Amino acid sequence: MHPEVKEELRVRRLQVVFDIAAVRGGVRKLCGEFGIAKSTFYYWKKRYESVGKPGLYRHKPIPYSSPRKTRPEVTEKVLELRNAHNMGPMKIVYYLQRYHGIDVSESTVYRILKAHGVSRLGRGKIKRTTHSTRYSKDVPGHHIQMDVKVLFFKDLDSKRIKRFQYTAIDDATRIRALKVYSRHTQANAIDFLDYVVDKFPFRIKTIRTDRGHEFQAKFHWHVEDSGMEHVYIKPMTPQLNGKVERSHRTDKDEFYQLLSYTDDVDLNAKLQAWENYYNFDRPHFSHQGQTPYEVMKLLLEKTG
């Protein structure tokens, strides 16, 4: 039954009840016959006597416009950030505060995402088998975590292509350097190390890696000959290089998931743009919304 028809029938039924009550009285018995609570009877009777039949129609229980309702432009920005960068609610809050001067709560952002069917980031389940304590160094360059992320793409002919993203991240600031190679070799690891040394705006003390073949003797002695220390994490303990591992997940969620692969030149150009965005513009959750370069500036000021 259409809601308007149903409402009209309800109003007519109340009118009949009031007419019968006016003739014969006996409100309690009458309410029992029609299945109406006495409080309901007197509530609607008072409205009926006050304004007539219009008083019997239900009104919307909430105002049609609320001063606390989220503005359409805020909703638009939230959805834009989710679609463009695949950000979670808290990162969206940081980004809106930082770049748009919009103060909004995490719960409000989540409600907007949920209302538009995009509340889930679409990542796979993560299985943790070991527990470790999170830590951070206070001096930029004291520890640099380095690792390789294996990438798979398909070219225009649907042929499978394998590439290798070399990643370095500073333990204290989360500043990163990224570069993609077509081969997984010590020579490329050495080339990447030189890129990192040139890229990072501070002196590097220690490079920490796993025991992959790309980080063996040639790489090790190149690090040592460059005036840095090279240390290996314990076998089967990737959590000891947890920051670089976690940053790879960020790459997957916020970069590669939104990337349309065409060729190597295009990939490297986009990766460099992503590296700059990550270091200079992306609000970092573990830094309470500050960017890695802002944290570096604060840490350098502390250490004099």
What this model shows, in words?
This protein has 304 residues and is of the alpha/beta class. The radius of gyration is 32 Å and the shape is elongated. Mean pLDDT is 84; it is low at 124-134. It has helices at 3-24, 27-34, 38-51, 72-85, 89-100, 106-115, 186-199, 217-225, 242-254, 264-281, 292-303; strands spanning 144-154, 160-170, 176-181, 206-209, 229-232.
- What would you call the shape? elongated
Whole-Å distance between the termini? 76 Å
Q: Provide the spatial order of strands within the biggest beta sheet.
A: 3-2-1-4-5
Radius of gyration: 32 Å
Low-confidence sequence ranges: 124-134
- Strand tally: 5
Annotation field: number of helices: 11
Structural class based on helices, strands and sheet pairing: alpha/beta
Task: Classify the oligomer.
Answer: single chain
| Overall helicity | 40-55%
Q: Any descriptors?
A:
alpha/beta, 5-stranded mixed sheet, 11 helices, 5 strands
Task: Give a short summary of the structure.
Helix content is 48%, strand content 12%. The protein has helices at 3-24, 27-34, 38-51, 72-85, 89-100, 106-115, 186-199, 217-225, 242-254, 264-281, 292-303, and strands at residues 144-154, 160-170, 176-181, 206-209, 229-232. It has a five-stranded mixed sheet with strand order 3-2-1-4-5, sandwiched between helices.
